[in-house]
Every structure is written in structure tokens, then in C-alpha cells.
Amino acid sequence: MRSILSRLFGKGEGKEALPVRPFTGIDWSQEPSNPLWFEQTDAIARVPEIARKWHRPDADVLLRKWLADGYIVLDNCFSEQEIDRFATEVDDAWFADKPAPGLSVSDVRVGDVTHVHMAHADLLALSPEQRTLAKAQSNWRIGEFHLYNDAASRILRNETIADACSALFDRPGLPHFSLTFSKGSTQALHQDTCVFHTWPFNALIGVWIALEDITVESGPLVYYPGSHREPLFHEFDNYPQTQRRTASPEQSARYDAHVDATAAKYERKEFLAKKGQALLWHGMLIHGGAKFVAPGTTRKSFVIHFLPDGGNVGHRVVGPFNW
Ligand SMILES: O=C(O)CCC(=O)C(=O)O
Ligand SMILES: [Fe+2]
């Protein structure tokens, strides 16, 4: 008797060879889902019930804005002192006495070479003059700084933000994946749902926190209120398997064009935040970094992505991956 594998893939007697297809992941349409309240058709009717659980006088207004516009802005979540401490310590990491094992700084340009991820130890091995120059001339970022720094960890664990995300999800939200930006990102327009793998759909809230007052010329966060209500790009028809991270180069180009064309239907806004203000956005809200960044400007910000427990299903998705 022929083995299962040879029956599937082998050239057997009297049998045409079956074409070998790469495994493209599970069929997510068959996967049980527990959709979020704001993804359901009766969402507006549920606002009073959800608002009662969020102990803020403006809960009702914020939830209605979340549904209509796909984002909310929160003030007074942090003390000025904790924001300042964070901003200072990010800068100080460049001149620390000793390296933090595991920490790396991304997109560091030394001379003509840009290091995608530079280990903190390698950074500290540069002379102080080289570091001062690299810091000024690079559009550097730090991923997961909260794992290495108390001031960042304190911001990540802020209770007002966690309560807001849990209220918006109507289930406990957990902070994941922090990013510390030093300058305007100039990032292309995108939807975070399409760069994460979440289940249920849109189980994702982005939180953008200003670590200083943000100016027009520093390349602010750009976003398009209401764009979150647009359907998912039609080619991503087996989400969360099919999205931007698993898309082919051609498909990625079509997605990017789709996002640009969709954004053009909406008003473009820039988040000219005051230090400490936070913008919370829906996974499908189109956003990116403004294209123009004036030389010498900074745009210090901290981004956290919140998901409900178990909402990240990246481990159930198959590659190849674009990043
Ligand atoms: O800060 C920016 O310019 C964009 C950040 C962003 O898109 C993200 O972290 O999801
Ligand atoms: Fe994003």
C-alpha cells in the first residue's frame, strides 16, 4: 500500500499527480468568533449600557465619537512629570553608562550606513561625538522600551488608558508592542488591523501619546475620521491570514493604493497634540505620519497597541512574512 504522502503527492499507477499547493493557513471563515460590540449592527443602541461600565462623566460622548469617527482624544491621563521623565530617559539611553541587554535602537545612521536595529551595546561603543551626530541625523525609534525602562513601563501601565481600552472593547484590554518615536515617522497611510493579526476582527486599539507639544512642521500623526467604517480591502478575504504582512509585493502595492484612494474620501486631520494628550484609534482608522518633517525637529511620542486577552493570533498565521 502506498503511503499517505505518496498518495497525495506522488505519481501513482493510473493516477494523475495532484498539484502541490503551498499551505496558506486555516480557513478563518470556519473559525468561531466572538465579535466586539462596536463591530455589530446594534452598536449605537448599546452605548448607554457600555457607558455605565466606564466610570467617566463623558463616557457616553466618547463612545458615540468612537463609533462615528473611529478615534477619541483623552487629556489628563498622565502627570507632566512622568511624561518628562520618560522623554528625558529615552534621550539618556544614548549616553547610558552600561548597555541594557536585549535593548536595541532602530534606524540609526552612522556615517553612510543605516543600522535597522542597533544593539544598545554597539551604540554605546560609538564615541560620544559619533552618538550625538547619529542621534541628530537619524530617524531613530525604539521598540519595546517599556521592557528596559521604568518610566516607559509606568506610561504603558497607565490605568486611565487601560480603563479606556477595556471600556471600548467591553472586555479587558492588555498593552502590547510599544514603540517610542523620536521624530516624524513619515509612515505611509495604513490601517493597523491590516498589519496585525487579530481575532475577533478589529480587536485592536492604537494609543498615541505625545511626549512633547507637537508642531505642524515636525511630521505629526495624520488620520481620517470616519474611515474606520470602510470595509476591509477585498483581497484580504481570509483575514487574519491575508493582510499586509503576508501580502505579495503586488498585492501590497494594490492595498496601499486602495488605502490612499479611500482616505481621499475623508477629511485629513493632524494630531497637533499637547504634551501628555493621547489619541486612541480603531484598528481600521486610516492613519500614518505626515510626509513633511522639517530638518532638526523632533516629534517625541509613544505608541502602545492594546488587544483583548488572546486577541493576537499571529502564531496561527503562516508566512512568508514581509516583516
Ligand atoms: O506615529 C506615527 O507616525 C505612526 C504610528 C503608527 O502608525 C503605529 O504605530 O501604528
Ligand atoms: Fe499604525
CATH superfamily of the domain at 48-78 and 158-313: q2cbj1_9rhob like domain
Terminal CA distance: 44 Å
Sheet with most strands: strand arrangement = 1-9-6-11-5-4
Low-confidence stretches: 1-14
Share of residues in helices: 25-40%
In percent terms, what proportion of residues is strand?
15-25%
Large-scale geometry:
globular
Ligand list: 2-oxoglutaric acid, fe (ii) ion
Structural class: alpha+beta
User: Which fold name fills CATH's third level, the topology of the domain at 48-78 and 158-313?
Assistant: Jelly Rolls
Number of helices: 9
Mean pLDDT: 94
State Rg.
22 Å
**Beta strand count:** 11
The biggest beta sheet reads: 6 strands, antiparallel
Describe the secondary-structure layout.
Elements: H1 4-9, H2 47-53, H3 59-69, E1 71-74, H4 80-92, E2 104-110, E3 113-119, H5 120-124, H6 128-137, E4 141-143, H7 150-156, H8 159-169, E5 173-181, E6 205-210, E7 221-223, H9 249-263, E8 269-270, E9 278-282, E10 287-289, E11 301-308
Antiparallel strand pairs: 1-9, 2-3, 4-5, 5-11, 6-9, 6-11, 7-8, 7-10
The structure holds 2-oxoglutaric acid and fe (ii) ion.
